């Protein structure tokens, strides 16, 4: 849904505050940290920034943040799991601020990880940038999807086709859907003044997944790791504006 100039200003501010929350969570990502601790901190920081966690209560989701460790794919409810050296963790969070949602995700390494896992993380982020580079008013969603797909297939990485990006703003999930792969048929046209959450979710193994007993948390059937990077992007007449820039968040956390 198209945003007014005032709403765009509020979206920018909400995105800035969401990045600050992620930066605060980043400092706690180290061996020995309990995921429940991160979840409580996410809720506290959202309120401290003058907003609310977008995910909490959305379609019944019970937590303020999604925390996926190693082979967990998406929508994972924070548990009592304690981070170990060599893990990777995806922190996926939305912030509802002044009536608008922003959405972002980062995968971090907990200490040192293997070269193949590093390749996974780098590939997921490269796909995010490739897809974003195609955003502009009048462009087709298929151009974004195609750039993501080309990047991931070129790096030999798995695309989880059941999980896609989406419009964001007045609602957490809006049209258009932004697949990480191309589909046959017509494709929606991007419109200036609308916002997108672009989110490549990428693996090293098979695409098959398992939904856990909580009916939310999804993991890979083969136990292979998954990475995700997501940011909120505003479509403009000239191209795009990243509302939740991740550059300062990329890399290993420092305690």
Structure description:
This is Methionine aminopeptidase. A divalent metal cation 2 binds at residues 103, 166, 199, 230. It catalyses: Release of N-terminal amino acids, preferentially methionine, from peptides and arylamides. Residues 11-237 form the Peptidase M24 domain. Pfam families: Peptidase_M24. With 255 residues, this protein is an alpha+beta fold. The protein has one domain (5-249): Alpha-Beta Complex (Creatine Amidinohydrolase). Helix content is 27%, strand content 25%. It contains four helices and 15 strands. It has helices at residues 5-26, 35-48, 115-132, 141-154, and strands spanning 52-53, 66-69, 72-74, 88-97, 100-109, 158-159, 165-168, 174-178, 195-198, 201-203, 209-211, 218-220, 226-228, 231-235, 240-242. The strands form four sheets. A five-stranded antiparallel sheet has the order 8-7-9-14-15. The longest helix is centred in the N-terminal third of the chain and has 22 residues, at 5-26. The protein is globular, with a radius of gyration of 17 Å. The N and C termini lie far apart (40 Å).
